[in-house]
Write a structure and sequence with these properties.
4 copies of one chain form a homotetramer. Chain A has about 475 residues and is of the alpha+beta class. Helices cover about 50% and strands about 15% of the residues of chain A. The mean pLDDT of chain A is about 95. Chains A, B, C, D: InterPro entries: Acyl-CoA_Oxase/DH_mid-dom_sf, AcylCo_DH-like_C, AcylCoA_DH/oxidase_NM_dom_sf, HpaB/PvcC/4-BUDH, HpaB/PvcC/4-BUDH_C, HpaB/PvcC/4-BUDH_N.
């Protein structure tokens, strides 16, 4: 119990979990090349040794133990600021494990309906926290035909559902899609994908089970082949995490791990508890990336000697504007944080949704500015190996020279990062992630309508209209 | 000395100023119908009687007197917040008078070059403050051919310049354009329109003179005819302020009113001292208007019974997003305020420029959403008189009925405000104001490049690129 | 019978029609100042004397008479080209009178249901054609609550309906909105606003009646006051046409003027017969205006000496692109025209809808480019009277000088046209017209879905997907 | 001599050319796995056997021989239409070989300066045509610091230049970038990258040499690893063509292959002769792809049961609008084709530039619509191998079920094509290709300014302004 080392984390993944990738059933992911980078990424969050990292990454629980700070429930604006700072330095595997912290925010509401469920949430939160576990957010159902409700589908399993209830627990069947890092976690925290109606009782279900539970199967997918060279792929050589298509083939869940089993009135608060934190995570990443895009845009412009070109300056200014609007809105969301009845602090809901929407809605256009600045070399630049090859490399060194003080190698690195982030497998994947992670544009529009103070706006408009 | 009443303000405008409008030389603007609304607007800032208004609008100077708060030099974040609150309740005539407060921010820099100029700034600031004067920001030159510098123009007067220097003062000649409220102020505060080069000595000039100084002539223009009905024109019936084309026909300025006369190295800091506050004012107005646009969009949608229409909801959400991004960035600009060497507090320069840019660059598109929601009635709705006429009015009452609880009159008022703000003379004028007031898009892009921490962005990009 | 002179047209408007404007019931519109410009506009279409105009504007009917070409039913691509050329030179009053020509396109379909209706259409077409009448397109109902169908409204009259049927004819009640030029026409051609369901029988009604029919009342509205100076308002001084809010207060329509009275299955083809031609008219106007916007943008740029400024060139290029995409798509729509079963030729439906959509969806953004180029003088330029006034005029002549060869007066005219078209009452009105005339964005999207060859696109996509 | 077979083409590539890829010097590209797909793509253009293909792909020369139609010089609108049809069915290797045909359009202008150059062009055209060769367009220089001209660079070789002139020919040195298909062609046709000034004599050079000429070295790059599975990569498994970084290390060119050697006044007409055809090719591809995007958007929407969702319909309509605007403008460009003095027909220059600009400027935004419709499965869908694996495949078949009649496999294929085209290595590459191929946005803006009839637009604007 307590904080794990990276080695302990890796060892803990050898637990018989059923994982597929590219048609292969992988028995031990810790030795499989496809999982080398993902496990390295996840392991970095277990680096507590350095005092500064320890301060950033861990906190003292109310029991006096040390736990990963992702499990800390923010109770003040300062806590929230610290959490945001943590997010900048935490992998997506760590971030999604905040799911238990989010669940704690609905505990009081759950307790009113069924105190046992609330107790289960609390117990699981402590179990995961105190064992330094990682947990995946398991939400999106297969959904089938969107025009029809869960129980109206041709196959009733197209939304994950309870197929059996016993004295010991429930048996569930279904599949959950886009489950980030499912294969790299210890627990799967399952939630309903949306609010449920009266007649969708079997679909209002939430629980947490170990990844190696019998009947759980994960089919993985990522943008990346196993190994990428870090010169040519400066970002994606380090950042790949697989998404899981997670199947529950009649999986048994004991009652003490169940958080919801039929109480449809609670389904939507479960579904929403995570969205805010997912989008906050997305926004933190957006702020981080947008600044890098500004830097890349300026570098590639300067390196071509075009930094006095008004059209180039215009494009860079658009990127600055994007980066700063994002940074300001994240700052606002944290300073204007909100408090739940039980005293948990979270970022301003409207602010996060508006900012995430702004990020997603404008991402493609911003990449157009980057691509306009970068020019054709973004995609036609030769590979590192050609640069290292003496015969061909001499030409690259000679002909990639531009303004004084800039090495051919530096230019190549800048071009490679632009390509990797915006115009290659990882970059292509990022377009969709920017738009869809944490819910697509429509999900944010719905939240804007729900949280905006429309009564005030209408009153001001009517007053201005003289009505 | 001290605060003026509205009546005293009006009386003070009868001072022999030379003002033209629509071909007429107007000897007394206080009795001319074209100036009725503008003077009423300006007079509202002199309403100090109500204690709440007094608190909002006035402050105690270091001499113990009371003065309009627009003259208060912010020395803390709280001062700045109070100033922003004031801006929401102050006319543009009051706002531009902040020019002396802005000048105080450059006083120290000026003192290093010429202490007398600095003393003049301080004296004029106190004079204006202690007499509750209004002062116009007089900046933009005629400019002639933009490819050529000031002294290269066919006519050397196309930028305002010093034509003579005497022991008593200087004589200036030229014209200044887009001078908001020139005819409604007591003082004209003249600044260089831009930085000046070595050979543009005569053009580096700044001073303050009374509006009725010999040789000053103002040609007025506004979007509005004299009188507008407030039912049909709910906004513009109350809000018109003329812009002045201000001519300096060999105007003498005594040395004690001169702030700059040839020291080219100071020209650009004068020119920039105002831009920030102009844009802050624009941003405050943007926040106020954007919320009203959301309210109007929602009202017109509900009143058509279309509030469940996804396309309509989408358009409203876009407007919410716009309004909130603006509100968040203004909040950020104030919380992350900056301090000059002499201890004056001002909004964050980068934040204000980015936010103003966002406002201006997206304004037209946002109006497209409003127009899409409003439909044809925005422009085809009959006038109030038709509504009041018994014969025709009965039909309007009958046929403008839509959802329960909404009166035809309310619908008309909502449509009228939409049209007035976005699709009529005032609305048309607003498109240009949104884009050009406080400097066009390019002016903000330049400031973004100047103030963004590009070194940090490049460093992060290079680190990410492995370079 | 035969072509009318302009004088005969004007005289024919003195027929007792009931018209209101600004609260006044106007007994003779031909002598009322508000109608001076509108009647002048409409009269221009009656100028047949000049041989070239006669050739453009009139054609020989199958009976050997001469009629306005707006009544000519296109039977070949050449006819269509001639009609488009005519549209460039015809007022909106003439254009809407094409309604009978459009009705002729549905005559065959109507005949299958009720041959008498078809005969009535043909007779009315000949009557209007042979008497050189003008007819308004009377379509949009008041609509009330959009969530409810016609017969579900609180007031059943919110969609125009048949309230009584007799042996002699029908009696109708309701109001029609946005009826362009209603007061300037001879006939009102009423159509259902949309397709009607089984239970909306009373609302499936179409007919034509004289404007002066008992019970018809028109409440007018335009963007413009009565008189505008043509220097300051170069466009709107000449172009105003009022929109009518047209009330049918138990109006009797004899059977021989009825085209539809309860046959719900025909309602939508009536409603659609006009949309195509309205949008074609809108597209012709779009092509005409877009070229003028390019010209204005370039002129205002050159006149500031900014024609070598890359940002300005970029904005002008965007406007060129807009103008040319519109011109090319109109050309395409005519060359790829379509033929009805009865041999009538009309522009390509998909092309017209796509092009109108492109026009409308991008109009606001294009005006942003114009406003960015124009700068503040677009709205702050003094008026003509100030220019003509000797005292103030001398300064305008002096200070509006810019590049060699450009007169101050020319600059003023260019600024005035920009303002008038984009940033004043007429310009504001144009934003809404661009978006809403001929149906808003959604109306065009619906038509795109209906007419696009989706089967082919899906087949190609599936083939490319290997499915 | 005459048409080659695919086998002859492949054999002809074994000629000692010096080619690098990923650090490896490849001696025989015809047996190297990286070249398998590219050579297969290029070989398809040599399929003349089928009579329909023969008709499409070949024509009878004036000498009575058969040649690939890419060499046919269009002399009528019908020829041009046939050429466009050919472009839809020709690989990029074939398309770029149109370079000689384009050169023929400048022959007359060249002849006026130096008849021998013109004769060389003609001879090379016939040589390539009559031997069914493929030729790369070798234009873009390394360029170094864009602020400086060719001869001002730190290294004079940053633009390709003549380093020596002898009686036998010239010796050139430099590098050319983004040379599509360089390794797959027989000839390299070198052109100046831009117009040249008086003092850039050595840089005004054009010639054609075999790829295996001594001193020529090609470093290849493509988006793709060697082999891609065609289920997971339905587009890119078939379409990869490498771009070449082509080095000229003191390459000797005999005089009979030189088209330009110092006559700076001709440089820009060489540079421009190709741009039009490159952009036409880009536009043809744009039309083809845009239709597929519409199909994919509609398929993915229907397969989720969301085809009645207004937001989805809106996104599809935007894609329809994009596809049709492109199709209409390509049609226009061909119908309004232009004739050179020597009688060669080419597409309308303004139309092609405007349409290519519209394509490129809106491509990113259109992909946003596709990504919004596709949702997360675009990137998280498991691979084919997981689908074929019995254990994991059963779950994919079960849980990817949605609306009746759609197989899981079909859904996977549709998602895979969307991902491959828009959100993976090939898709990322396509973003840059859309923007940069044939010259970036600015290149098209320049051509718009050059070819738009600005005088007419200004005259109309002035007339409308009353000036």
């Amino acid at each position: 119990m307590g904080l794990k080392t990276a080695e302990q984390y890796v060892a803990s993944l050898r637990d018989g979990r059923v994982t597929y990738w590219d048609g292969e059933r992988i028995d031990d992911i810790t030795t499989h090349p496809r999982f080398r980078v993902p496990i390295a990424v996840a392991s970095r969050d277990y680096a507590y040794d350095d005092p500064k990292a320890a301060e950033l990454r861990s906190f003292t629980t109310e029991d006096g133990g040390r736990a990963h700070r992702i499990y800390q429930i923010p109770r003040s604006e300062a806590d929230l600021a610290q959490r945001v700072e943590l997010m900048y330095h935490t992998s997506i595997v760590g971030l999604v494990s905040g799911v238990y912290m989010a669940l704690m925010s609905v505990k009081d509401a759950v307790a009113k309906v069924n105190p046992q469920y609330a107790a289960n949430i609390e117990a699981m939160y402590r179990h995961a926290r105190d064992n330094d576990l990682r947990a995946a957010e398991v939400i999106t159902d297969a959904k089938g035909d969107r025009k029809r409700k869960a129980h109206e589908q041709d196959d009733p399993d197209l939304y994950l559902r309870i197929v059996k209830r016993t004295d010991e627990g429930i048996v569930v069947r279904g599949a959950k899609l886009h489950i980030t890092a499912a294969s790299l976690c210890h627990e799967l925290v399952v939630m309903p994908t949306k609010g449920m109606r009266q007649d969708e009782t079997d679909y209002a279900v939430s629980f947490s089970i170990p990844v190696n539970t019998k009947g759980v199967k994960i089919i993985n997918r990522s943008f990346a082949p196993a190994e990428l060279n870090e010169f040519d792929y400066p970002a994606s050589a380090h950042h790949s995490i697989p998404e899981g298509f997670v199947v529950f083939d009649d999986v048994f869940v004991p009652w003490n791990r169940v958080f919801l089993a039929g109480e449809v009135q609670l389904a939507s608060i479960f579904a929403q508890s995570l969205g805010l934190w997912e989008r906050t995570g997305g926004l933190v990443e957006a702020v981080r990336m947008a600044e890098i895009f500004v830097g890349l845009a300026q570098l590639v412009t300067e390196q071509q000697g075009k930094d006095r070109d008004p059209i180039a300056q215009n494009s860079v200014a658009e990127l600055i504007s994007y980066a700063e609007m994002l940074r300001m809105s994240l700052d606002y969301a944290c300073r204007h944080c909100e408090r739940t009845p039980s005293g948990m602090i979270h970022p301003n809901v409207l602010a996060v949704n508006v900012a995430k929407y702004y990020y997603a809605a404008n991402y493609h256009q911003m990449m157009r500015y980057v691509h306009d600045l970068g020019g054709g070399l973004v995609i036609t630049l030769p590979l590192e190996a050609d640069f290292r090859n003496e015969e061909s490399g001499q030409y690259l060194r000679k002909y990639l020279r531009s303004v004084p003080g800039v090495e051919a190698e530096t230019r190549m690195r800048v071009y490679n990062l632009i390509r990797d982030l915006t115009a290659d497998a990882y970059g292509g994947w990022q377009f969709v992630v920017a738009l869809q992670a944490g819910g697509g544009l429509n999900a944010q529009r719905i939240m804007m309508h729900r949280t905006y103070n429309m009564a005030a706006a209408k009153a001001k408009a009517l007053a201005a209209a003289g009505a």
